[in-house]
C-alpha cells in the first residue's frame, strides 16, 4: 500500500488525523464540508464540487455496553482500535467474541500472553484455509513468465466467485451446503482439542433453508437466530486451542467490574486487558458524519424512512447530487473480494461522475428516485430465499429485518452491471459546450511520457513503412 501511494504520487494529496463531521449541499451547487483536526480539535470548513465517502462499512466498531465496563481498571480496546502502545506480553487477556476478528487475534497473542480466555456464546463454521506455500520454481515462474501471476489470480477469483451458488436457494445450493458442512465438521474435529468439540461444532446448518435434526436424532425446529453466519477460514485458531494458556468459555458476559469479568454462569475471572472482538456497525454506512442533501434533508433520516440504507449500484442516492459512496449498501460480496467490489465502484464513479464534472460537461449528477428504487427492488428480490435472509440473525440484517449489505450474485455480475449504458438513470445539469476541449486537455495533461514515447515510436514506424512502400513502387519508373 505504501509503495502504491508513492508510485502514483498520492501522499501529498492526503491529510491524516482529520475526520469529516458533516457535509451539506448548498444552493450554489457545491458541498460545504466540515472537518475536525483530531490532534488539535480545531474544526474548519472546505468547499467541494464532488463528495465521495470512502469510509466503508467495516470501519466503525459496534457499540457494546456491558454492565460495569466503565469501572474496569485495566486496559480495554476494540480489535479495530488496537492500542499498539500497550504491551500485552505476560498479561492475562480476555477476548470477547467469536467471529473472524477473534479467530485472528487469539492465535497471534496466545504465545505472548500469560493466559488468554475467549468468551464465545455460540459456535461458528470453521473451514480449512486453502493456502499453501509456493515452491522456489513457482515463484521464479511468477517473476519471469508473462501473465502467469494474472492467470493464477483469475483462477482464484473465479473459484471464489463460484461459491455464490452455496449461498442461494434451491436443491443444488442445499447439496453444496451439506457438503461444506461435512468438510467443516471433519476439519473442526480433526484440528481442535476434543474437550471443545461440543462447543465448536455447530448444531445449526450452514444455511437455514432446510430443517435439521439434533445429534441425538430428536426432531427440533430450526433455531433461525443461530444460523446463516459467515464462514470462517481458520487462520490457526483451532490449533491454538491446544495451547495450555488458552481457554474457551461458552458463556456470555454478565458484568465487568474493576478487576475482571463475570460470565453468565456466575464465574468471575480477573484480567489485565480486555479485547472486544465484537464486530462492526456496518448498517451505519457513513457514521459518525452527517450528510445533508437538497433542502437540508438528512441522509440518515432518508435511510431510516426507507427501512435501511439503499443506493443505486450501492453508490448514488437520490437527493444528494455529486455525492458517491464506496463500499456502500448491497455491495458486500460474502464470497469474494471486497477490494474488487470497491475497484468496480471507483471505475463506475470515475465514468459517471468524476469525468463529466471535471471536464465541465456536467455541473451536477444525481440519480433519479425511480432508478434507485427499481435497482434496490431487483437486488432484494434476488436476495430473497438466500441463506442470509432465511429469518436468521447476522450483521447483514438491520433492525427492520432488511438486508442492506449483501450483493446477491456473482462479483463478476456487479462488474458487468457497472458497464451497462446508464440511459435515463441520472438527472444531469449541463455546463459548458466546450467540454470536449476540456476533456482533450485533461487527456493530454494526464497521459504519461511513456505513453507519448510509445505513440511517437509507433508513428515513426508507420511513417517508415509508408516511405518504404513508396520506394518499392517508384523503382520500376526509375528503371525506365
UniProtKB/TrEMBL annotation:
Keywords: FAD, Flavoprotein, Monooxygenase, Oxidoreductase. Gene3D superfamilies: FAD/NAD(P)-binding domain (3.50.50.60). InterPro entries: FAD-bind_Monooxygenase_sf, FAD/NAD-bd_sf, Flavin_mOase-like. Pfam families: FMO-like (PF00743). GO terms for molecular function: flavin adenine dinucleotide binding; N,N-dimethylaniline monooxygenase activity; NADP binding. Belongs to the FAD-binding monooxygenase family. This is Flavin-binding monooxygenase-like family protein.
Amino acid at each position: 500500500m505504501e509503495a502504491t501511494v508513492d508510485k502514483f504520487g498520492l501522499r501529498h494529496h492526503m491529510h491524516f488525523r482529520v475526520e469529516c463531521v458533516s457535509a451539506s449541499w448548498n444552493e450554489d451547487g457545491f458541498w460545504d464540508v466540515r472537518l475536525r483536526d483530531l490532534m488539535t480539535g480545531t474544526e474548519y470548513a472546505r468547499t467541494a464540487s464532488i463528495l465521495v465517502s470512502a469510509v466503508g462499512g467495516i470501519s466503525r466498531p459496534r457499540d457494546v455496553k456491558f454492565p460495569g465496563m466503565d469501572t474496569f481498571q485495566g486496559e480495554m480496546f476494540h480489535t479495530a482500535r488496537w492500542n499498539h502502545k500497550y504491551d500485552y506480553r505476560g498479561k492475562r487477556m480476555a477476548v470477547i467474541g467469536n467471529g473472524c476478528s477473534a479467530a485472528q487475534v487469539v492465535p497471534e497473542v496466545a504465545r505472548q500472553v500469560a493466559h488468554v480466555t475467549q468468551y464465545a456464546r455460540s459456535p461458528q463454521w470453521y473451514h480449512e484455509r486453502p493456502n499453501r506455500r509456493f515452491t522456489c520454481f513457482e515463484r521464479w515462474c511468477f517473476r519471469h513468465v508473462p501473465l502467469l501471476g494474472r492467470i493464477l489470480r483469475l483462477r482464484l477469483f473465479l473459484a471464489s466467485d463460484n461459491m455464490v451458488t452455496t449461498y442461494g436457494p434451491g436443491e443444488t445450493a442445499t447439496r453444496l451446503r451439506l457438503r461444506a458442512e461435512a468438510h467443516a465438521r471433519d476439519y473442526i474435529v480433526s484440528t481442535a482439542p476434543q474437550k471443545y468439540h461440543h462447543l465448536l461444532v455447530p448444531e445449526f446448518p450452514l444455511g437455514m433453508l432446510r430443517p435439521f435434526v439434533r445429534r441425538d436424532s430428536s426432531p427440533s425446529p430450526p433455531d433461525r437466530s443461530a444460523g446463516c453466519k459467515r464462514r470462517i477460514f481458520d487462520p490457526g485458531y483451532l490449533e491454538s486451542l491446544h495451547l495450555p494458556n488458552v481457554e474457551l468459555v461458552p458463556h456470555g458476559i454478565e458484568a465487568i467490574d474493576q478487576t475482571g469479568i463475570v460470565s453468565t454462569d456466575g464465574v468471575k475471572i480477573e484480567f489485565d486487558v480486555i479485547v472486544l472482538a465484537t464486530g462492526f456497525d456496518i448498517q451505519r454506512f457513513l457514521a459518525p458524519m452527517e450528510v445533508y442533501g437538497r433542502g437540508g434533508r438528512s441522509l440518515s433520516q432518508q435511510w431510516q424512512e426507507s427501512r435501511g440504507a439503499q443506493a443505486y449500484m450501492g453508490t448514488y442516492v437520490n437527493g444528494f447530487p455529486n455525492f458517491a459512496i464506496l463500499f456502500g449498501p448491497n455491495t458486500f460480496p460474502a464470497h469474494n473480494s471486497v477490494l474488487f467490489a470497491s475497484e468496480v465502484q471507483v471505475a463506475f464513479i470515475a465514468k459517471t461522475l468524476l469525468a463529466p464534472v471535471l471536464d465541465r460537461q456536467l455541473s451536477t449528477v444525481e440519480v433519479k428516485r425511480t432508478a434507485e428504487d427499481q435497482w434496490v427492488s431487483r437486488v432484494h428480490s434476488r436476495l430473497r430465499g438466500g441463506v442470509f435472509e432465511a429469518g436468521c440473525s447476522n450483521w447483514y440484517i438491520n433492525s427492520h429485518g432488511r438486508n442492506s449489505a449483501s450483493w446477491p450474485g456473482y462479483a463478476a455480475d456487479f462488474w458487468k452491471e457497472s458497464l451497462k449504458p446508464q440511459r435515463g438513470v441520472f438527472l444531469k445539469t449541463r455546463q459548458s459546450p466546450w467540454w470536449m476541449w476540456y476533456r482533450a486537455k485533461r487527456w493530454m495533461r494526464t497521459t504519461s511520457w511513456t505513453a507519448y514515447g510509445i505513440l511517437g515510436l509507433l508513428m515513426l514506424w508507420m511513417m517508415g513503412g509508408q516511405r518504404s512502400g513508396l520506394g518499392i513502387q517508384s523503382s520500376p519508373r526509375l528503371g525506365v
